[in-house]
Specification:
three-stranded antiparallel β-sheet; about 30% helix; single chain; globular; alpha+beta
């Protein structure tokens, strides 16, 4: 009888105590594996996404990148970027944005590795293999680290959850129009229902 692992898989490494450099080397030495680390030190192995999720992720990130290219207010990051969050986790949102002066305050070495900074904005897209509860905990981890605005897209329930620093989560049904508010000034996103 064979057993299948379900991903994402979280490994408890609290007694191992990987240093930041060891975690960085683990990720660099295994580029074919998507790895994150939560604030408790758990190592999270993420599965690759399928076609629908990959397409949705890029489409949403492209809208953010186009807005940023026009405004030049900050830097946009892909899902391949891991941020060393102040709350202790090493996380990789599906898309992220950092205000330009905050990014420029980092040293060149900090920008080269896993930037030790919480983005101002994060976007997460739930794939069929993602647990909603795990993603909601990840969004809370972002807020605990100082992320000011976050959108969690949930195609399975045709919803988007809006996370704002210091406020209660807002859940909207799709279709809806989202605003970047004072974090991403002038950025709006019309989100239709996700195709099955």
């Amino acid at each position: 009888m064979t057993s299948m692992l379900t991903l994402p898989l979280t490994l408890n490494l609290q007694s191992v105590h990987l240093t930041d450099e060891q975690f960085y080397q683990l990720c660099i030495s295994n580029p074919e594996i998507r790895v994150e680390r939560n604030a408790d030190g758990g190592l999270i192995i993420m599965p690759p996404v399928g076609g629908n999720s990959g397409n949705r992720e890029l489409e949403l990130g492209t809208d953010l990148a186009i807005w940023n290219r026009q405004t030049q207010l900050g830097k946009v990051f892909s899902s391949s970027t891991i941020f060393k969050l102040p709350s202790g986790g090493d996380r990789s949102p599906d898309a992220a944005w950092i205000e330009l002066s905050r990014w420029q305050a980092l040293t060149p070495q900090q920008r080269q590795k896993f930037p030790p900074i919480a983005p101002d904005f994060v976007l997460e897209l739930r794939s069929p293999t993602d647990s909603l509860e795990m993603l909601q905990a990840k969004m809370q981890e972002y807020l605990d680290s100082g992320v000011r605005l976050g959108w969690l897209f949930n195609p399975q329930d045709q919803q988007v959850e809006i996370y704002r620093l210091g406020q209660v989560k807002e859940t909207r049904s799709l279709p809806t129009q989202l605003s970047g508010e004072d974090v991403l000034p002038g950025f709006t996103l019309q989100v239709e229902r996700f195709e099955e």
